[in-house]
Amino acid sequence: MDRREKRQAQYVLANMVVDLVRSRSLKAGHHLTEQWLAQELSVSRTPVRAALRLLADAGLVESRARQGFFLAKDADEIDRSQSLTVPSTPEQDLYASVVRDRISGGLPDSMTQTEFARRYAVNRIVLLRVLSRMADEGLIARNKGQGWTFQPGLDSARALRASYDFRVTLEPAGLLLASFFADPVVLNRLRSDHETVLAAPSPPPPGILFELDAAFHETLASFSGNAYFVQAVQQQNRLRRLLEYQGYENRHRIRIWIAEHLAVLEALANGDRQQAARRLTAHLENALSASPSPDGTVEPIAVPQPNGRGSTRALGCNPVPDVHAGAGS
């Protein structure tokens, strides 16, 4: 693990400490001992000490000479917006650059490893990690000879429309299957992950946002109890990964789709699967209307309504503001 990766791990651990403090409803002045935190979080004391220093810099804990670290405020005064922004790693930076360049048409269908290294001025280890990750995600494949080839994605308006038609037909139906069961523990964890992003002062990197988005849809599919639903949703997520990346810098749209996800989760928590299915349908239709075109333009794609007219408003949902990037679907 290099220096930037260690630094990132410290920020992640610091946020885990905050979550632990909030879950235990600790009061200001509580002594946060390194040994207790290390046991609770299953890590060694050294990274805990580094995480506590970060929290002290943020004003969430107080460092007292020869005494240790103490909580600076009651847990109920610490909201999710005070979570620390986790810095990116070299791999994340390179991944984002490759994705942006591929979407914009700046990269050919096939490239050698040397061409990648020359273009992005990165070392071989970082490059191989990124290419391996992209291969695992179905974005790129190693050629039989030398080089790598980008895999087909949603690269036309027609393909995008077809993808959403398929998903609107499939995903809400999965919520209504007789075999459907929403695990309350998984449901709460998914809701907590969304609330954390919604309350953060700035959005996390695009890769994390996509994983949250994909996890939402794949988790709902897994609740269906039908492996074919899960496989279909996973395939759609692989196809749309590149296209979604170009819109994740739109903070307003990010907040919209997270709120729509939370509305679906709320209906499921209340045991109202019919309402959850309607909300999921509305969310997917809103996402299509807000999707950037595969060619990079930002013209909204009309969503057909029962009255036969195209609209960017989905039934059962409030109108989506005029934002056409970062569909989050």
From TrEMBL:
Kindly indicate whether the keyword Transcription belongs to this entry.
yes
Q: Which organism is it from?
A: Pseudoxanthobacter soli DSM 19599
Question: Which InterPro entries does its entry note?
Answer: GntR_C, TF_FadR/GntR_C, Tscrpt_reg_HTH_GntR, WH-like_DNA-bd_sf, WH_DNA-bd_sf
Under Pfam families, the record lists:
FCD, GntR
Q: Which top-rank group of organisms is this from?
A: Bacteria
Region Disordered: start-end pairs: 288-329
Q: What is this protein called?
A: DNA-binding transcriptional regulator, GntR family
What keywords are assigned to this protein? DNA-binding, Transcription, Transcription regulation
Q: From the UniProt record, which GO molecular function terms apply?
A: DNA binding; DNA-binding transcription factor activity
Segments forming domain HTH gntR-type: 7-74
